[in-house]
Amino acid sequence: MLNPAAENILCISESRALNQSLLQLLGDDQELQDILQRVQATGDNYANELRLSPNEVHAAERLVECRVSRLTDEQNRDGLLIEMSDVTRRSKISRENALLIQHGAGRQMVRQLAHEIKNPLGGLRGAAQLLERQLESKELTEYTDVIISEADRLAALVDTLLGPGGPPNKQEVNIHELLEYVMRLVTPELGENIRITRDYDPGLPSIALDRDQMVQAFLNLVRNAAAALGEQGQITLRSRAVMNYTIGDTRHPVIASIEIEDDGPGISPELQDSIFYPLVTSRPDGTGLGLPAAQELISRHGGLIEFDSRPGKTVFQIRVPLTDAGHPHG
Asked: Taking the model in full, what pTM does it have?
């Protein structure tokens, strides 16, 4: 027997499901099979989360909370009661909040780190310059040159950590024009076997944004995708308008969603919870500053960067409100 909510979750009517295996309807989930057998054998109750694959009705993967208990009917026959609730949205909100907390902690860490580095750097550089004036030997001034150039390199790194300063200088811009500009900058860096595809929503209106800050955020994400691909693969740029979307505590009537997708190996599971922290990177030549800087720049526009990654498909989604007006989410 299926109630209407179960029909909706399983995307099948009770009459069509009759005599079919529940496990087949749920993609032969091995974990659920083990739980059903355990409940039948022991009579204990079990709860678990399942991931339901996309189908014709639901385009995206869904997360379902599943509870299983033993049930005896009026004729004293034993059966199983399986209760399911779709927790995809709840899980998504929890993840968004975790990203916002991570971003706040990352920003605090960056500022403290930058402050600790910047003060002694100025003194170090100044002392090296004074020492250089006292030295007559060219061989010795080569060492002070190294100190000065390395101090300058570290100062530039600190400036990158702090990111472009100040609130956004917003002007009406076309998102697609910004993305095309970013692609012109990046294309010379790409291997000849990396393909770019575009899937733009032509109806997306102009948005009030800081052009320079958004270009930097997009640039960081596209370069990240290219680095993940290495020599070959595909990068897809996608834009959509999404209605009634909540970012943090604010519900927006409509937002722009810009996606940067690559078909590379994906982000390793052990890095997925910390990739927006500064200095976290999987690449030997990476600084680990690109993603935290992009998240900072998007957050200045009241937006958020999310991601979904598995082998063969990694998508970074930039969510930006189309207007400044938002309603606290009750």
From this structure: 0.56
Shared-domain flag, residues 75 and 107: no
114 SS3 class: helix
Residues 184 and 279 in one domain: yes
Contact 192, 229 (CB under 8 A): no
Number of domains in the chain: 3
Residues 44 and 131 in one domain: no
**Residues 6 or more apart from 314 whose CB is under 8 A from it?**
225, 228, 261, 262, 264, 266, 267, 307, 308
From first to last of the 330 residues of the chain, give the pLDDT tens digit.
Answer: 777 777 676 767 777 777 777 766 666 666 777 777 777 777 777 777 767 666 555 555 667 777 877 777 676 677 777 777 766 666 666 666 666 666 666 666 666 677 677 778 888 888 988 888 888 888 888 888 888 888 887 777 676 556 555 667 788 889 999 999 888 888 888 878 888 899 998 888 888 888 888 888 888 889 888 888 888 888 899 999 888 787 777 788 888 999 999 888 887 777 766 666 655 565 555 555 677 778 777 888 888 888 888 888 888 989 998 875 444 444
Joined together, the tokens standing for residue 293 give: 């800087």
Q: Identity (one letter) of the amino acid at 226? A: A
Q: What distance in Å separates the CA atoms of residue 317 and residue 308, rounded to the nearest whole number?
A: 8
Segments forming the whole domain that contains residue 229? 171-328
